[in-house]
Design goal:
Distance between the termini: 72 Å
Largest sheet: 7 strands, mixed
Protein name: Aldehyde/histidinol dehydrogenase
Number of helices: 18
Radius of gyration: 25 Å
Number of domains: 2
GO molecular function: oxidoreductase activity, acting on the aldehyde or oxo group of donors, NAD or NADP as acceptor
Number of strands: 24
Strand content: 15-25%
Keywords: Oxidoreductase
Strand order of the largest sheet: 14-17-18-13-12-20-21
Organism: Syntrophomonas zehnderi OL-4
Shape: globular
CATH class of the largest domain: Alpha Beta
Structural class: alpha/beta
Length: 531
């Protein structure tokens, strides 16, 4: 019997705290052209399981819309009509008017918090506090986006006088936008693209993630009430079938996508004018940590533990490969193993739980495959019980030594497996970084500036963020979030996102046009050129 099986309880609905019990959603809905439309549905099951006699089953949560290509095309056609080459109601609104719509939406959205938290816990087994943090962070992101947009708009009122020319430079929308967010942060990651795309005047088609789709259903009613028809369209279905027809129309101007490189490349290749397609991509990551002999061992172990295992390691910003100097390797592995033995696992509503059931189907088997393959090439699971699982709960495996012959050295595991390798010098690290196809972030653990400085100079050309004595993370949202190599394209922060979903447009007057330029400003009857 596995270490998890000994302690795992498959909860019956009656045993679950009343405030976290859930009702099955038996109607699939999508939002197209301002209307909530009943749609063909696909059953959605929770990763949380229960025992019925001797059989382990997953709770059925309801139905997500599962459109065919012709139905999905209605969404992009609605977005095209609402944008209308920039003449639509939404792109023609002033910044102030669009901000007002988003503020009203955000105010009403606050009432959805508890329902969202409960639904996310059931859909992707995200712990209660993490689910609450995601909702609150999204509200804060919306608030900060509005503040920064007002500042951008204020600065754009300036009249530039350059070499005899007068000019005003403002940001304009790009057109219909396709957004596809991930399951692990179904609200925050989606809205980090959706809100800036929307508020800059674009129209949006958003495909729901494979898991974490039902938690966004209550937002449909608010979105339908808050924005003009066709401005926001929410759909779902088998991506390989419904996305190509949408993209092949050629009207999508921006693709916001978080997922794998292979899928992103396929979508981009389907666009008939991909030179016109702006892409904001969050792709795979293999974020390393580098642990030096003089590190604060207690702090380092705690940061590496949280960095590798928070929400089961199902974060692009998770630590995915730990490199430890050979002088400290044995001590580090022993301390990390002891720390793993103390972590709490269970159901998402359990207090202080770190590990919960994995959302993806067949994920435990894939993780185990990588462990077995690594063991065949000489690695060992150094912590007791590592790699054992029951149902969808997977007990963390610390693998050492991990070498390039092993798949886990190269792939993004996106789960609770911790590959550990040793190094002697910066030359070993430099070789690894040069070979690695990913480049999102890295962490350095040392108290020596002499150790850290040269490694920072290496990492600054290989990753986009270096964390000192801390795990990798995304926030604060004011900081740029991007990656090198196959980890990202485009940059997301609050200000960067506003720029990513818009383009600078300008009105310019030479000496012959300045009189007209000033007349338009004085009349104040132009939405673009005004003070």
């Amino acid at each position: 019997m596995s270490v998890i099986e000994k302690n795992l309880l498959y909860p019956s609905m009656e045993s679950i705290p009343r405030q976290f019990q859930i009702t099955c959603r038996n109607e699939a809905r999508c939002l197209i052209n301002g209307k909530i439309i009943p749609a063909p549905g696909k059953e959605v099951y929770s990763p949380i399981q229960y025992r019925e006699s001797a059989v382990i089953k997953n709770y059925r949560l309801g139905y997500t819309p599962w459109l065919d290509p012709s139905q999905a095309l209605d969404a992009i056609k609605a977005a095209e009509l609402a944008y209308d080459y920039g003449w639509g109601v939404w792109p023609q609104m002033t910044i102030k008017e669009r901000i007002h719509c988003v503020e009203e939406f955000a105010l009403r959205m606050q009432d959805l918090q508890e329902g969202f938290i409960c639904q996310v816990m059931w859909e992707i087994a995200k712990p209660y506090q993490s689910s609450k943090d995601e909702f609150q962070r999204t509200l804060k992101y919306m608030e900060e986006t509005i503040i920064h947009l007002r500042e951008l708009d204020k600065n754009a009122a300036k009249i530039h006088q350059i070499e005899g020319f007068a000019a005003q430079i403002r940001r304009s929308p790009l057109g219909p936008v396709l957004l596809m967010g991930p399951f692990n942060y179904p609200l925050n990651e989606a809205f980090a693209m959706f809100i800036p795309a929307l508020i800059m005047g674009n129209t949006v088609v958003m495909k729901l993630p494979s898991w974490g789709c039902l938690c966004l259903d209550p937002f449909l009613d608010l979105l339908a009430d808050s924005f003009p028809p066709g401005v926001v369209n929410i759909i779902n279905g088998e991506g390989s079938k419904i996305i190509p027809p949408i993209v092949e129309r050629g009207s999508i101007n921006v693709l916001g996508f978080i997922g794998t490189t292979a899928v992103a490349n396929k979508i981009i290749a389907d666009h008939p004018y991909n030179n016109r397609l702006r892409t904001i991509l969050g792709l795979e990551a293999k974020n390393p940590a580098f642990v030096f002999p003089d590190c604060d061992l207690e702090l380092t172990v705690q940061e590496c533990l949280q960095g590798a295992l928070e929400f089961n390691g199902q974060r692009c910003t998770s630590l995915k490969h730990i490199w430890v100097h050979e002088e400290i390797c044995e001590r580090f592995l022993d301390a990390l193993s002891q720390a793993v033995a103390k972590i709490k696992y269970g159901m998402p509503w359990d207090q202080d739980v770190l590990l919960t059931p994995l959302a993806e189907e067949g994920k435990c088997e894939r993780l185990l495959h990588w462990i077995y393959q690594a063991e065949e090439h000489g690695a060992k699971t150094v912590n007791p019980g590592g790699g054992e699982y029951a149902g969808n709960l997977f007990y963390p495996s610390i693998l050492f030594p991990v070498t390039r012959e092993m798949d886990i050295y190269h792939v993004e595991q996106f789960g609770p497996v911790i590959p550990v390798s040793s190094f002697r010098s910066l030359d070993d690290i430099a070789v690894y970084l040069a070979e690695c196809q990913f480049g999102q972030q890295a962490s350095i653990f040392t108290n020596s500036a002499q150790m850290a400085a040269p490694l920072i100079d290496i990492l600054a050309h290989q990753v986009s963020r270096v964390n000192l004595n801390a795990q990798c993370r995304r926030g604060p949202d004011e900081l740029p979030f991007t990656g090198r190599k196959d980890s990202a394209e485009g940059t997301l922060s609050i200000v960067d996102a506003l720029r990513a979903f818009s383009i600078r447009s300008l009105v310019v007057a030479n000496e012959h046009g300045k009189e007209l330029f000033n007349k338009i400003l004085a009349a104040d009857n132009c939405k673009f050129l005004h003070r």
